[in-house]
Structures are given as C-alpha cells and as structure tokens.
Amino acid sequence: MIRRALLCLLAAALPAAAARAESLALTGATVHTVSGPVLENATIVIEEGRIAAVGADLTPVPNTRVVSCAGKHIYPGLVSANTVLGLTEVASVAGTNDFSETGTTNPNIRAEIGINPESDLLPVARVNGITTALVVPRGGAISGTSALVHLDGWTFEDMTVRAPIGLHVQWPNLTPVRGWFEVRSDEEQKKARDQALAGIRQAFDDARAYWTARAAEGKAGIPRHDRDVKWDAMGRALRGEIPVFFHAAALNQIKAALRFADEQKLTNVVLVGGGDAWRVADELKARNIAVVAGPTLALPRRGYEPYDEAFTGPAKLWQAGVRFCIGDGGSPFGAMNARNLAYHAAMAAAFGLPRDEALKSVTLYPAQILGVADMVGSIESGKLADLIVTDGDPLEITTRVEQVWSAGRPVSMETRQTGLFRKYDARPRGAQARGR
Amino acid sequence: MPHVPTLRRAFLFVALVPVLGVAPAAPASAATPRVHAIVGARIVVAPGQVIPRGTIVVRDGLIVAVGADVAVPADARVWPGDSLTVYPGLLDAFVMPAEAPGAPGATPFGPGPRPGGAPAPSAPQPPRGAAHELATVRPEARVVESLPLPRDQIEPLRAAGFAAAQVAPRRGIVRGQSAVVGLGDGAPNANVVRADAAQVVALEPATDGYPGSLMGAIAVVRQALLDARWYREAHTLYAKNPQAAERPVENLSWEALAPVVAGSQPALFVADEMLEVLRAAAVASEAGIVAQVVGAGDEYKRAREIAATGVALVVPVAFPDPPDVTDPADALEVSTEELRHWDEAAGNPAALARAGVTFALTANGLKDPKSFRTNVAKAIGRGLAPEQALAAVTTVPAKLLGLSDRLGTLAPGKNANLTVTRGELFSEKGKVREVWVDGNRYEVEKPDETAKGDWKIWWGESAHALSVTVDRDTTVKLVVGADTLRATGVTLEGARLRFTVRRGSEPPERFDLAAKEDRLAGTLSVEGAGAHAVTGARVPEAAKSAKQDQPVPVPAVMGNTEAWRAAPPAAPGTVLVKNATIWTAGPQGTLQNADLLVKDGRIAALGRSLVAPKGALVVDGTGRHVSPGIVDCHNHWAILGNVNECTNSVTAEVRIEDVINSESINIYRELAGGVTMTHLLHGSCNAIGGQCAVVKLKWGEPPDRLRFAPAPGTIKFALGENPKQSNFGARDPFGGGRYPQTRGGVEQVIRDAFTRARDYREAWAEWKAKRRPVPPRRDLQLDALAEVLEGKRFVHPHSYRQDEILMLMRVAEEFGFRIATFQHVLEGYKVADEMAAHGAGGSTFSDWWAYKFEVLDAIPWNGYLMWDRGVTVSYNSDDAELARRLNTEAAKAVKYGGVPPAEAIKFVTLNPARQLHIADRVGSLEPGKDADFAIWSGSPLSPFSRCEQTWVEGRKYFDRDADLAGREALAKERDALVAKARAAKKEGGGGATAARAWPPRYLEETDMSGNACGTHGDEHAFLSETARRALQNAGGGR
C-alpha cells in the first residue's frame, strides 16, 4: 500500500515533458520481458521514452532518476488488437459514436482522426494495463484504415503510434440469419449480401485499375488522371505495404475471403475474429496468414458446438502453428470494458494455451501482427517504454496494476471511476456499515 | 348417378362462381334415388376389423347394412367393388380455411408497427359490439357462419381421402368455434355435422398491441377463462336481486366461453411446438377445462411428459425437407438439431403411440394434402401400426369430436362417409378412387390405364420381367432367362404398348399389349410361328420402395445439445468428495484438504478425513476446489419467445414460469460454468413487468421440473431509460409515445398500480364480509400486486440511478412493503446506506458501465461499497455468456475494493440465494442444504481454473471428462446426418411437404427485443414476435 502510494506520488510529480527528457531506471522488479527470459531483481533503463537497457545487473549511470519497484512485477503494456476505443463514449447514445460511417465502401476513413483524447473510456482501459490499442473503423464493408494509439496523450496526433496499420474489410455474413434481431427474410438478406460482396470486388478492381493508370502517368502519350480519395487510400494495401484485415468469423466467410485475397493477389492479409479459423489452420499456416482471434469470452457460434468452442480457438491455432494474437472482439458495446482483454487470454490458457503463450497473445504477438513490434509488445532495448507495474500476473483478475508507463511517462492512475469511488467511499457512513 | 353435374348444373355453376364464389347446392329437381350397394369389396369396418369380401348398403346418406352376406336391396344402384377397399370416410380433425390473399390480417404486420420505427399506436379496430376488449379474443366467432370452405380446398382434401373435417378459425388467440363438416359439394346447411364443436385457442401473440409475447398470450387465455366463470356467477347473483347493485357488464365473448368453462365444449389449443403442448395442457388443467391440442410434429421429443398430461393431440405429418448441406462450409450453419429433426420427424406418430398418447393425424401443414397418405406411410415405416394410423383419421377424431355415433366406422346408422381405395390406403401404390360423403359419391381418380411401370408377364409356361420406363424416350426391357433384352420399335400410347425384341439370330418377336389397371393382356407374334396370348400383372411399387430407412442413431453422451435426449444423471445415494479445498460460503469459511459428504441429494457433512460410507461414490478432490453451485440472480436465457411483454406499462399478470425454455442449450453451457440455479426475469421494458421464475439447471427435465418450487414469487419492475423508452430508436427526445416518458411518470405508474391493488384487496375484503352482492372480478395483474403488498411476492427492480433507487424505496415504504433486491443498481453505491436501512439487496454487474447514458457513473467498486455499507450484494450476469464465468466475476470484488475471497465467493452463491429467499436450501455448503456444488481445477476466483464437474441435488449434471469423451461420437453422427441429407437432396428431397420454417421457438435465441439495455439498438426490436416470425418466414428459405 505504501509503495503504491509512492509510485502514485511520483506520477503526479512528473510533468510529461520532464519525464521524456530525463533518464530513468526502474529497479528491483521481476521483469517479464516476454520476448526473452524472466529477469529477477532487474533494472529497466528508460531514455527519451524508450527502453535503453534491461538486465539483472545494470548499474544506472549518474543523473538517472531511480524508481524502486522492489517486490513488483513489470510487464510490457498490453496491446489491444481490435477496438473502437476513442470512437465511442456511450454506445447507445448515437451522438457519441464515430466508429461506423455510412455507406459500404469507405477505404479513406482514418480511425485516428475521430479519436477523442478526453474519452473517459481510455483511462479506464489504461489503468488495467492496456497501453496501446488498435482503433478500427467498423462501418459498411470496406471500413477504412486502423491506427495504433497510445491510450494517453494530449491530442490524437500525440497519441498515434502508427497509422495506417491496415485496411479493414468486414466480410458479409453469407448464411441468412434467423433470429428475433433479424427481420429481413432469407431472400432479402441474400440480396444484401450479394450486393456487399459485389461492392467489395468492385472497389478492389477499380482501385487496382486506378493505380495501374497512375503508374502509367508520365509515360509517352498517357494523360494525367484525376485523383480519387477512396482509391488513393487503398494504394498501400493493394501493394502489400500494409495488411488487409478481413473480419470474418464463419468458415464460409473465411474461405470466401481467402479466395478473394487469392484472386486479388493480396500478399499481406490478416484475418480478424475467425471463430472458425482453426478449421483452415493448415491453409493459414501455409499462406502465413495471421489471425487476430477472439473474443474467447464468447458463446459457441452454433448451438451444436462444444460449450468451450470459443475458449479453445487460440490453443488450436497455436497447436497448428498459425500466427495469432487475442483481441476482445472489438464490439462497440464492449469498448467500455476493453480493460478486460487479459482475461480473454487467461480463458484461452485455461483451455489449452500455454500460459506464456497467453501472455504473448496480448503483448508481443499483436505487436508483430500489427507490424509494430519494433515499438511495443515486449521489454527490449529500443522499444517504447510502455510498461506496467503489477503485484502479479496481469492475466489473473485479482492482480492489481499499480503503475502504468506510457512511452517512458508514468501515467495518471486516476479515472472517472476512481474519482467517484473516493467521493462516495468518503460519504458519512450509515448505521449498518461494516466496522472499520 | 347422383351428384354428377348435369349440363344444366354445370352451366349454373360456371355462371354463379364469380358471384358467390361457392358451389351451389344440388338443385331440388335432382330426384335420383340415393340407394347404393358396393358389392364384393374388401371392407375395413373399423381399424383392425376387416371383411375380406362383403357388401355395404347406403340409403339416404346413412349406412344401412355392412357384412359378408348382406342382401342388396332391389332399389339399390350396384357398384362393383372387386379389387377395391372401403374404409370409413377419413376425418381430418384440423383444417383451417384457406386465406384469400390480401384478406385483412393476412399481411405479416397488420395495421401496426412497421420496420424502421418505434411502435405505432394501435390502429382502431372495427366495432364488434359488447365483446372482449382485445381483437384477438373472439370466442363468439363461429366457423359455421362462414362456411363453406372454398372448393379448391375441399377437392384436394377429398383427393387425399378425407370425407369430413373439423374446420377451425385461423386468426387470433381465442379464435372462436369450429365446425365439423362433410366435404361434399352441397350447401353448408347439408354438410354441417356439428356446429360449435370446439373453442379454438392459440397461444399466439397479437401482431399489433397487447399481448406482444407468448407469455402475454397465455395470460390473456388464463384471464379470459377466469372472466367467463366470473361472468356466469356475477350475472346469476345479479339476477337474484337486480336492485342491489349496478348491473354487471355485458360481454358476449365471456358469454361465448360459458360452454368451455362448464366443460361441455372442449378447447382445441393450437401449438407451435411441443413445449406449447405441455403449456396448453397445464393452462387447461389449471382452468378445469377439457383440452385437445393441435401439435406441430415434434411431440416425440417430450412424448412421455405429453402422455402424462392426458391431453389428446391432433398431429401433422408435414415432415421437413432435407436441409441444404451441399457445400461443406455452408453445412456448418445447419444445426445438428435441424438435421436430426429432419431425420426423425416421420417417427413422431409412432413415438406418441408408444408413449400412450391419444392422437389424431391431420393433413394440416402439408403444402398439398395429397402427400398425406404417403407421409402416413412413412410414419408406418417408422413403427406406427397401420391400424393405429387408420384410427387416427377415423375413430380417434370421431371420439375427440364427440361424433363416434355418426363417424369413424362403417356401421348401420352412421353417416355414409366412405373412403374407397385401390390398394392399401397408406402406401405409395394405394390410390383413393372415390370418397363418399353422406351417401354422395365423389370420384377422385380415374383408374390407372398406363403400361408404364414394372410387370411380370407370362406366355407359355414361364414368367418374365418387363420394365417400361419413360424418361425422354420410352425404354422397354424384357428379361428372359439370364438375358436382359432391350426392345426396339417401342410405341406407348396410354394403355397400349407395342415393341419388338430379338434374341440372337432368332426371328423378331413382336409384342402388342394393353394395360388395364394392374393387368396386362395381349399377344406375342413371331414371324412364321403365329401368335401367343400374353398376360401380365403389375409388380407392386411397394416392393421397390421397401428400402429400409432408419434414423441415424444419436449417441447417448454428455455434451449432446438437445435437452430432451439427456438421460437423468445417476443418483448415487452417497457421494464423498475427498481432499479438496472447499469454499463453503458458510460459517466454516474455506476448508483446506477437506471432504464433502452428500447423502440423498443433501449435504450430510463437511470436514477432514470423513469416512466414506459403504457404497459411496468417491470423487478425488486432490488439487481441486469445491464451491457451492453458482446462483445467477439475473438472467433471461432460457425463456421462450419475447422476455418482454412490452406493450403496456404494467404487465404483472404475465409469468415467466409459463415460458421456461427447458430446451435451451444455455442450460448445459451454464452448468459447464458451475451454475446450478438462475433467476429468469421478465425484461425491463415496462415499469411493472412480469412475474419471474427461479429455476434449477436440471438439464433434460421439462419446464415445470426446472422450476424451484420452494422459491417465493418474484416480480420484475424497471426504472429509468428502459420503461421510459429512451433508447427506442429515433424519436422525439422530449417524449411522445407510450406513457411514461420520464422518471416522474414511471413513479406515477407504480404508485397508480399499487393504489389500484390496494382498492382491489379492499373490494375482496368487502365481498368476504358480505358487503358486496357480486364478487369482484379476479384480475391476475392485481392479484400479483396484491401479493407484493402482502409481502408474499418479492420485487426485483431494474434500476441504475440513485434517485430512482431512492424513489422506489420510498414508494414501497408508503405502501407498506419492502423492495427485495435492486437489479443492476449501478449507482447503488451512492445510496448504499439508504438501501441497507430499507433492507434491500443489490444484484449488480461487477464492472459494466457506459453502455447507456444512465450508467456513466457505474464503477467497479459498486459491489464493494454496497457490501461495505451492509447491503447484501450479488454479482449477476444478465447474459448467457457471462453467466458461465460468474466465479471470476466474484474475483473482481477482490480486485476492486479488496473484499476477502471467502466473502467474494458469496457474491455469486450465498448472497444471490439470500436475495431470492432460498438461502435455507441453497447458496452455501452446509449440512442439510441441497448438494448443489461445482468442482474446479483450481481456485474458483482464478480465470485459469476450469469447472470440471457440476452437481445438482447430488446428481452430476456436468462432467468435463465425459463431455470431452462424447465429442467424437457426436461428430461422427453429424457427419452421417450431413451425408444422408446430401444424398436425400440429390434424390430430389424428401417430398417437399412441410410449409413450416426452422427453427422452432425453443431453439431460437432468447428474444430480448424491447429490453433496450443498449446492447440491442435495433429498431426492429419493437415488432411483436408474431410479426417478426411472419416476416422471417415470408422469404421461404431452407
């Protein structure tokens, strides 16, 4: 309790600017590097917001501010690979939502520019150890490009670690749904599905034609072509510089998306969701297609599936040697509890995934799959100092995250919720309150 | 020949049809004698009673003689019956008049809500006099007033062999009175056998307005039957002394129900699925009325329970088409349940027969009644005795309709309804030749005069096989000895067949044959050798189609997804769990290396080194943890139909216990998360919602045995955004729509309801004190609220903000009762002291927040802060997924606030049990309590732990090892079903008979529409169940 208070004081005392300039050493903790061994009683040296060194027998150079973390555990900050954090506040209040643009073809929508840095959801996720999140637009079929952002910062520019990360395609549901929430007939659903599929194909074909034409500009006799903001936005994904993220859960969707990727000769593809991905694990492995799995805290997609179908998905991918990470599904209504990401990994561990793999699946693996492993995901020199100081395994619910460091800055552990807690904890106590 | 249209009549018919739309009555001038004798026929007098060759005499519409040696009256017209079989005229006990397209009410929506918006106000109903206030309750309607059936409906029924039918009204809840009619062409006046045979009732929500849910429809029926009783009594009492009180209301609907409540007219319930059969039987038994139920074809699933109710059924033979599993990836989306039902549906009648259920069979549900007989033949192929099949369309329906004296068998004095066939009635090859209705003969099918088919032919001494197939060309194959000869020069002209065959170098042999029904005759001419006579007989098709088709066996393993197949787990008398960490959630705290002894379903002892009694089942608990079974204080996931009766602001009359979905796979899934009990609540659509149900998760048991009887009644209230419809799609932010639209209005709705309930109690007290001449009308809504006032029913309000929490406690205090447990109560932490003082519990989410505006202030310390201030706190799930890991939700009380682990586990065990007033039976591991417990691989508070076993009352309902062990067999079975369905589809389907859509209601996802928890913002959510189902089915589909 005392140590925690000290760390909190430290956080309050350090303005962000000062923290960036100063050399820091976190000492005495058990350091879970994730990419390498667990180091007992180790030191992490931070310079200019990055990890300068990590080791058991480092001696900090003079003028280094030393923060004792004795008895604590330090982990890399968790990376949430599929969220709408910052794009929603209260999902049922339309005015607070910016994750779903209208229309089906919006490759030019950029997730990062709609992020509200003051969202109350961000600190709540952050104080449970999530330091960066992939913010994904979700509207229509081609939704736009995602961004990896820090969950603290003054402005969206400040927060953005890298953008664009990838182009996101929501593969249409191929089987008509029968349920109270779906009032369209089978035929109507099939019609909508076929339109969406045609729209995706058309967009990729048109964008490719556009880039072919542009590449030819300047050659003899080739005129200038007008610019198109939508097809411009698809260029990097078409060239394979950033991945196309196909959001697809059912086997028929996954197969169709993979076939489409083939036809389009897409070389850089990631599958998101992919409840049935394990059914095509061999193909995914052979084609080196990674999967952003999850949510694992989910019911089986189908009534007849085993009760633990969603729990065992990551373990099956791991066993088959498919590259994967675990996300929480990114439901807009789930954004408020993005803090519970680690428990999706824990459930996978309870159902067959080794515990060290479970930890990697929310740190190093998402960093690798999102193409940001040079910056986040593990405790290695040269990476951003996104660190969490805990009293135990962050995948255990009872573990407390005591301090979060974001790019070498200790971030405030205060949230809208802690404020309300303290206020009402201090309310004069009634006659039936427990003795203290 | 009587009733064959003369030229004059035919002309009249053509001329009148456009005007009247019906066939005219036989003109009085047709004085043809109505005396007939069918001679030399096989006569099935009654099921199982056959005269191999006999005569039946009909005079003026009645049978006058049947027997082997009956004399033919001199005035009779004689019909040769050779090669024919005469059956009692078939009787279909459930026919609904076809609806003209565009008829009122034929659209899925009716005049009410449309997709894309909030509920529209109910359209004004046409005036219907002093009748029931709901348009869907019209018991006074009489089918006899809207006869006849359209001709294009009568003829297919006759073609299927039916001579009479019970015609039932189609729309509504209490639909009106059926009529039994002969299926002759004459005027209804002549055809009606019995008017007002039964009152037809369907547990079907209205398309528009109240009731919008299945449970609401049940409440309407229950109330209407009570009203009918009260109406009789009130009018009787009033009539004795008309000066003593105001006259009771007139109500022709209640009046029309008098014969039903008096027991002189049966109620014919129309059920959508097998659980509704059980519910209809229960409603009828509760109301003391005679019930029969029209089933849906899936009754085999709960045949034992249905048999126990004693109700008679009318079941369809509309078997489903094979599901489309052509593409292996798409096939994943076809459920095993659907595949199994497709494979097993034809066994439904046989299963009912084995269970001892009395049932009639109906052609209802078939796209074309023509497939009725062949489908019954399929049912016979699955084990239904042919006599029983015949009884199900003759003697049984006659008895159900109280017409055994006139219909059902061939006996002197009975109506001359006959079904005349060639061949077996229920077979592929059997043909209905004619149907007689009240002594009038209707020819159904001309004799078969084609040479197509398989024959055995003779010339000289030996028999040869001849096969004539017509595809694009006619192919004739003749087998002579070991050779199969393909004919040339084939001509097939109807019954006449000519062809030539050559054997080696022998001269050509020319055949010229003519078919007459099942006989073939003609000549074989060989050049230079003259002609020989040839005779032949048709090879019965049955021999070909006798291919045995048995259903794919379903492995009896744990993890099977169909509750009704689950065998009850073994009930070992004594169980000893050895050497575990036991979280008792009781005074003993958490015990290390301890044993748990269970005897006869109850906990006998806890402690170290208990000795296993002889014969005890010993479970090794080493390294494992044991906790009480998890009790989920708030969920909806095993409810049939809509969880909301969303139409009115107060719906205390509806009961979740009427709509418990025993078939929900969620029951098994929750068991796999250590859950043993749940509180199934009405939704939060209205200020005062419905009565809730507390259930034990005894996977496999039917609804009424899931209910935990010792639990006192509970009722759902709702405060804040949901009852004021704040998130109901785009609408005026300042109100409009149903009252209330503000928190102030919500309070007034509740206050008004309890004011009415108080007056209601007063009125009953006055009646008991003989201060009223007429008893008050029983009101099921006010009954429930009176129980609240009396402290017999506990209130569970959906609540978020502190002001509304406080408001409700104060209103309750004013009316002299206490709020039992606030649900959700996400700002409970702000008024925890007030809650503790009032005595209210709080059942909350561990950490949900910000999903709607009113929960922006929710904090994960809510549980801790309420607990710290002396409130009994539980964590609930309100969600089928979260329910499976409530154990780790409890860990969040440790994380946020530092509640000690032994206390935290109580948040999901003992505390919810206390909140439901059942803690004397469940919630902790203490001697004497129910042996409801879960065994975990590690600490139940750790997300790394798995639930390994779940026990309810000393029976193991979940075992992870057994679940894993069963998976291979289930996968194999599914593969076999998929292969079979694929083959059936290739063969052209299973007859394409059924019009019903998959899935049945009990396999649908729980309908949360109208709950507006923020998680389902779909505007379509506000359509009634019926409207949505109609829309979904409109597209046809699989």
Describe this structure in words.
The complex is a heterodimer of chains A (436) and B (1038). Chain A is of the alpha/beta class and 436 residues long. Chain A has two domains: 1-76 and 378-414, Urease, subunit C, domain 1 (Roll); 78-376, TIM Barrel (Alpha-Beta Barrel), CATH 3.20.20. In chain A, 30% of the residues lie in helices and 20% in strands. Chain A contains 13 helices and 18 strands. In chain A, strands 1, 2, 3, 4, 5, 16, 17 and 18 form an eight-stranded mixed sheet that branches. In chain A, strand 13 (269-273), helix 8 and strand 14 form a beta-alpha-beta unit. Chain B is an alpha/beta fold. Helix content of chain B is 25%, strand content 25%. Chain B contains 27 helices and 41 strands. In chain B, the strands form five sheets. Chain B has a nine-stranded antiparallel sheet, with no helix packed on it. In chain B, a hairpin with an 8-residue loop joins strand 14 and strand 15. The longest helix of chain B is centred in the first third of the chain and has 27 residues, at 214-240. Chain B is globular, with a radius of gyration of 34 Å. The two termini of chain B are 47 Å apart. The chains are: A alpha/beta (436), B alpha/beta (1038). At the A-B interface, helix 5, helix 7, helix 10 and helix 13 of A face helix 16, helix 21, helix 22, helix 23 and helix 26 of B.
